[in-house]
Amino acid sequence: MQQATLNRFYIGLLALLLLCVTLPAIAQPTPSTPANGSSSQPAEVEEASLEDLNQQLDQIRQKVTVNANDDLLSNLRQAALQVQKQADGLIARQAADIEQLNDQLNILGPVQPDEAPGLTSQRKALTAQKNALVNDERQTNALSQSARDLAIQIFSLRRSLFDSQISTRTASPLSSAFWSTLIRPTDDDLGRLQGLLVDVRAVFDSVLAPGKRTLFLTILTGALLIWIVGRRLLESLLIRAMVRWLPEGRLRRSALALAVGLSTILTITAATSLLRWGVESNAVLSNDVLNLLDQLQTLITFCAFIVGLGRALLMLPHPSWRLPQIPDQIATAMGRFPVVLALALMIIGTQERINSVIASSLALTVAVNGLTALAVSLVFFFALVRYRRIRRKYELQRPAGFAGLIPFVIAVWVGLSLLALLSGYLTLAYFLAVKLLWMSVVASTAYLLIACFGDVCETLLSPRQPGGLALGSALGLSARHQAQASTILAGIGRTLLLLTAVLLAFMPSGSSPGELLQSFIQLDFTNKSLGNLNIVPGDILLALACLVIGLLSVRVLKDWFGQRLLPETTMDAGMQASLVTLIGYIGFVLVVGVVMSTLHISLTNLTWVVSALSVGIGFGLQAIVQNFISGLILLTERPVKVGDWVSLAGVEGDIRRINVRATEIQMSDRSTVIVPNSQFITQNVRNVTMGNALGVVGITLTLPLETDVLQIRELLLQAFAEHEAVLDAPAPSVTFKDLTNNGLIISASGYVNSPRSVGGARSDLLFTVLGRLRELGIALSAPQSMVLINEGLAKDTPQE
User: Fold this and answer.
1) Top-level class of domain 695-776
2) pLDDT given for residue 512 in this prediction
3) Residue ranges per domain, the chain?
4) Helix (H, G, I), strand (E, B) or coil at 81
5) Most Cβ neighbours (<10 Å): which of 210, 345, 352, 462?
């Protein structure tokens, strides 16, 4: 514990000291901050004119070259999008002005023969203003389109640059050439680095000048106090507030995890913001130094986010608050790795950000990227090794479900990254490593938010919680509707959070979800079509992805309906199963439609297929289609449903599943009979349990002729009344059925709540009745038999 606290203190101290000297760093796998300060991205003007926007767009075009690095191109693209945004705003203002001039012209009306000269001159002036605005609006629209086209061209250039670098093989870390590139950079790189150090030294001298030293040291001390004391104080206050105001349960645990994570992030961000303000207020910053400050502040926030996220998920000081089902031994072993990962990013990323600012040579940039990939991959590698050793040492079970696959997926990913790194494909290794880091952060954050949102819905809306009971009582909601609303709201929220996480996980760094969708649209596969159908390999890959994602989504949707939503309704189990099956069929049809649309397949292209199917239906597929339609009728009309006890064509048992072609019936010996659906439509079916039918328990006794029938009647009625399964209404009855030579035939019957209870109740009643008859000395009548004796044969036998 002390070591972990000491490590966090060192991280914060190192972050603050780095900020003092304005060293560069990375915030994410690839940052989105400006590469050349204001020179690469023009300052945003709230209401820029058309001429200003044209000048900004021309400056952006001049900086777009094939020699520009990825960071500069990313910033130029953001600048072009900003120009487009300002142009769209200018178009909106121009449209409003044109509308206002039109209103004024409508007030003046058409030209009159005898109107005053003042009105004529005013109409001419307004018309001239309107024509000028219309001309400006046309030019602004063209400018907006030019900015959009430029952003698309920059995106294509970035993609081409990435494709060329990712397939380039250079020296691997096993060779001396790799390390010599880092140790002995070129003269050009040294010159640019020297210029950056001069700017940094000037800022350092300025903030430590005699007249400003005291103020800066005070700000530095305040930042340290915020990081050391403020974090603990804020975390303690948040924890006390959660414990006091939130009820016990998962919501409190989720809120406590968020409190621990947010306290770490907020205090570090506040400390760095305070220190940055101290630097900016005591020194004149160049564009490069200002760029470094932006990148470093984002870096520290990102590293603090990693540390805070690790503390929120592992909860080492309070294991009982831990949200994920992680054993204490594994959580303790993993506790240091978020700190180590954040520290590695801050140290190694420094040189990477310096390369971005000074626009270093490609060889040095690729080498530093390879070093970053090596550091990130090794941290994940040793974390996996540590996890495996702890699990073997304490003989811990592998997590069930998807959680058990996470270590395997990470191991494969890290193996590919290290293999690419050792093979010399440094850019590919860098891409895999930072993507793994980014996806891990997004997945962990999504898990925390999804768990917290579900707990909030459960606590505030569920009728099983005090908060939900209070809300339902205030709004007059029934418990059933309230439970349904809670389930639906939690499902929608979790789905939106999951989709957002997927977008962020696969989003290029520095982009927004909208830009991610635009990047997908811009993907270009210049392959030839296959035959007359307009299908290209790219469409096939996209269709396969849609098919897999669609089928998984349909399965998740069916599980959610069957396990979460429908159990909260008043539907019986059979109706729930039928509805889930219909949802699966509808979802599958929609997925097939999406796949066909992705492949650009229309029904006109499938005319020959439809013709062939029509012939096949007329001959060999008639029975299959009949069973399919019958299955749909069974699911909609529901003459039989899942769980019913049916009998048809010598088959009697319980319906376990209704498929699209056949129905599965489980017999009494646990065997399963597959019955085509058409038989349920075309044949007579006996549904024993339809309409919640009652079961009848009958007992027939044959007694001697001298038996007291009234005594037997009272005995049977008492036995039926005492049995807990026999219903009071309809009341049990005893019937004198017949009087024969064998004796008296008396029958007793009673009703139970289900035909399935008949067998057990009848067995219990027979045991009870026979036991009481034995106690009274009454025996059942034995069947009489007739024996014929041939006397003549008996007399002749001795004579022989």
Assistant:
1) alpha beta
2) 44
3) 2-31+179-514, 37-166, 524-687, 695-776
4) helix
5) 345
